[in-house]
Each structure stands twice: as structure tokens, then as C-alpha cells.
Design goal:
The complex is a heterodimer. By secondary structure, chain A is an alpha/beta fold. Chain A has helices at residues 15-25, 68-82, 105-113, and strands at residues 44-49, 55-59, 89-92, 116-117, 144-148, 156-161, 167-171. Chain A has a four-stranded mixed β-sheet. In chain A, strands 1-2-3 form a three-stranded mixed β-sheet, with helices on one face. The chains are: A alpha/beta, B mainly alpha.
Chain lengths: 174, 254
């Protein structure tokens, strides 16, 4: 996989091919977050065709050092192969940088189901000052507190609910 | 556009800063004062090593000599490194670790903000990505500066001691040399002296809240980013960081 680059707009991809590729990608899950597909995570940026009509899938990393990035790229490659798109190319683009605003509504729902509070809209704001107030994903209480600004993965912080007393993870805004 | 050799050296400066500070913070694995803080420092280390990978990969491509990110990280010697001296200093106590992280992160915030507007599109993309991560590092280390400085007598004294000891390494960040000037002229990098007001503002605000005294600018150490003279500490970092790759030079899988 080339470390950088973007496909130049070329031949149109047949709608049924594009849809089949998106469907295949919806079966690829983030290794760290159960039930969250790479599509709902917002890291699939484009499914298009290059000048020769070859399908090109462009993905972007969440955090630069996220160890899941390589695993995800492998899983995407495998999903494309399984769906019969062996010839499709996989590219990585850094710009524009990923933001948690790209997580879909369904993705936010999946995070809640997994007990992870979804990011508050929106990323990119000034982040100096007190940690944000995050509602508890289990009981909905607004009475929560930040225990640690960093969690078990680069994308999460640790919180505790003062209502139901459960600790939970919060998907940080980026 | 900048000539290849100059751009290569410039990318090493940026990549080596991230790599060496990332390696320094990784020393805290299993040794931080509390587990939440250990996760924080290691997460920051991970961000930095991610940034280093992007920057050193690009450097290797610009050089065009067939060296990749691993070759550049593991097979160069002390005098080939181009990081600022500030990032290679030992961690010291917790106040020292945090103080260095804060001073560097506040600088990186300014630097990446400017680099996100670089004429070099790939560098601009890396900088825009890194900037988001670095802002979080500033927030975390800044909050600790306040907690330590405005904390107990002991924590205040240690934070002040760290600040006083590290200050002489901050001059190098904002003193342009020929390469900085060439990059600024080519529209690739910022005028580093112009990054100072933004850094001052951030640092002064945090020090005020932390009830810490900003040291006077005096003699400033230099020699890191131009590779003229690193501290004796860099060799020790490399010994640990590079050992495995040098011991098994032909290994193809880790």
C-alpha cells in the first residue's frame, strides 16, 4: 500500500460496483471497538475509479500512531478480495485529517451499545481547559466525571458516572 | 520548491524530535507514578512515534537512497540526528518529565500550525494531522503544570526547579539557522523566530496559573537541530532504541 497519495478522478465506477464495495466495507469492523464498522467510523473516505477504471478505496488513519491502522488496512484488503475485488487498489490519504465528526449516526449508536460515550460534536475546537461534560452511556446521567484524559486506546478517555457508579469510556473529540 | 538534500535534513529535524521524545516517554512504561498517568504518557508517546513514522518515511523518499523509516530510526548514529536538544534530555523526576513535555508540546503546537500551511502538500497534511494530537498533549501537560505548580510546597519547588533547568534549552527552538531560513524562503517551513509570541502566550498563561516564575533568558544551549553537538544523553537513548535492529540486522520479521 502506498503510504500517501490520492486517486485522481478518472472513469466513473459503475453504481453496482461502488455499492458492492461499500457493502463489503461495512463488514469490516474496528478491531478495538466491537460492532463499529470502518464505514461508520468514517475512515473510508472514497470509493472511486482511477483513470483505467480500476476501483480505488481510500482510507485515512484516526490517530497517526494507532496500532489498529495496519490491522484495519489488512482487513479491508481481505474484504475486498473476498467480495471479488482483487484488482481494487487500497490507498491511504492523510488530508483532510480524520475527525470524530465523520462517525455516522449509526456509528454513534454502536458506540453507545458498546458502553462507550460517543464524541460530543464537534472536533477541531479549542481544547484547552476543563474536560467536557459527557452523559453516561448506560444510565444517561449528566453527573459524570473524567478519571483520566487517556484510556486503553489513543481515541478514548476514562470517565465515571456518579449516578449509576459505572466507569465508562468516552470517545474523545478530534 | 526546496532542494532534496535540504528538505531531507528539515524532515529529519521534525521526525527526530517526535521519535526521540516518543522514545523518552516510552521509558515510563511500568514506572509512572500512577496507572492513569502511565497510560497518558504512553498514549502521547504513541502519537509521537506515529508522527515520526510519517515524517521519516517521507524523509527517506525525499533522500531517494533507498532508506525507509526504520533505517533512519535504527541505523543512524548520534551526529546524524537532527532533533532539538530539549527532547533528548533525561526524564528526571515527574515534574521534569511534565515540564519538558509541556514546553515541547507548546512549541510543536505553534510549529505544526504553521506547517499545516506549508507549500509542501504532504508535509502540510502530516502537520494538520499531528496538530490535532499535539493540542491534546498541550492540554494534558499544561493541566499538570498547574496542578504541580499550584500544588504542595514540594510539587511547586520541583516544578520550578525543572523549569529553571530546562529553560536554557528553549532558545534553540526559536533561533533560525541557514536551513530554517532556506525552508522559510521556499514556503516549506515557518520563520521559527515568529513562532515565539504564540509560544510565549501559551507558556505565560500556564505559568501564571501554576504560580511558577518564568526564568530569565540567559545563555541558551544549541547544537541539536544542526547536529553540531548533541548532549551525551542521546547516545544512551540510541543504544537502547537501536540495539535489537543492530543485533539482528538481517531480520525481516519482528
Amino acid at each position: 500500500m502506498p503510504p500517501h497519495g490520492s486517486s485522481t478522478a478518472g472513469a466513473e465506477l459503475a453504481p453496482e460496483v461502488r455499492e458492492a464495495i461499500w457493502r463489503a466495507l461495512e463488514e469490516v469492523y474496528d478491531p478495538e471497538i466491537p460492532n463499529l464498522s470502518v464505514v461508520d467510523l468514517g475512515i473510508v473516505r472514497r470509493v472511486a475509479a482511477d483513470a483505467d477504471g480500476t476501483p480505488v478505496v481510500t482510507i485515512t488513519p484516526t490517530y497517526t500512531g494507532c496500532p489498529a491502522t495496519q490491522v484495519i488496512a489488512l482487513a479491508v484488503r481481505a474484504a475486498l478480495d473476498r467480495a471479488g475485488f482483487r484488482h481494487a487498489r487500497l490507498e491511504t490519504a492523510l488530508a483532510p485529517p480524520w475527525t470524530t465528526d465523520w462517525i455516522t449516526e449509526r456509528g454513534r449508536e454502536r458506540l453507545r451499545e458498546a458502553g462507550i460515550a460517543p464524541p460530543l460534536q464537534s472536533g477541531g475546537k479549542e481544547r484547552f481547559g476543563a474536560p467536557p461534560e459527557v452523559p453516561c452511556p448506560r444510565c444517561g446521567s449528566a453527573e459524570t466525571e473524567c478519571i483520566a484524559e487517556f484510556g486503553a486506546t489513543a481515541c478514548k478517555a476514562l470517565y465515571r458516572c456518579r449516578g449509576c457508579l459505572e466507569p465508562f469510556e468516552y470517545f474523545k473529540c478530534l | 520548491m526546496a532542494a532534496g538534500a535540504e528538505l531531507f535534513s528539515y524532515l529529519l529535524r521534525l521526525g527526530d524530535d517526535a521519535l526521540i521524545l516518543g522514545q523518552r516517554l516510552s521509558e515510563l512504561v511500568g514506572r509512572a507514578p500512577e496507572i492513569e498517568e502511565e497510560m497518558a504518557l504512553i498514549n502521547i508517546s504513541l502519537d509521537l512515534i506515529g508522527q515520526a513514522r510519517l515524517l521519516l518515511s517521507y524523509a527517506g523518499e525525499v533522500e531517494g537512497a533507498g532508506r525507509d523509516e526504520d533505517d533512519l530510526a535504527y541505523l543512524r548514529d548520534v551526529l546524524d540526528f537532527r532533533n532539538h536538544l530539549l527532547v533528548e534530555l533525561p526524564n528526571g523526576d515527574f515534574a521534569h518529565t511534565i515540564c519538558r513535555l509541556f514546553l515541547v508540546s507548546a512549541f510543536k503546537e505553534q510549529q505544526y500550525e504553521a506547517l499545516a500551511r506549508s507549500r509542501d502538500e504532504r508535509l502540510a497534511a502530516i502537520a494538520a494531522k499531528a496538530l490535532k494530537e499535539v493540542r491534546y498533549h498541550v492540554r494534558h501537560s499544561g493541566a499538570w503544570m498547574v496542578r504541580l505548580g499550584d500544588g504542595t510546597e514540594e510539587s511547586h519547588a520541583r516544578a520550578q526547579r525543572a523549569l529553571d533547568a530546562l529553560w536554557m534549552y528553549t532558545g534553540e527552538l526559536f533561533t533560525p539557522d541557514a536551513l530554517d531560513r532556506a525552508m522559510a524562503e521556499a514556503g516549506v517551513g515557518p520563520d521559527v523566530a515568529a513562532l515565539k509570541p504564540g509560544w510565549d502566550e501559551r507558556v505565560n498563561a500556564v505559568l501564571r496559573e501554576a504560580t511558577l516564575r518564568r526564568p530569565e533568558d540567559g545563555w541558551m544551549q544549541s547544537g541539536g537541530k544542526d547536529g553540531r553537538m548533541h548532549t551525551e544523553h542521546l547516545g544512551h537513548i540510541l543504544a537502547e532504541m537501536q540495539f535489537l535492529r543492530r543485533a539482528y540486522p538481517d531480520a525481516t520479521a519482528w
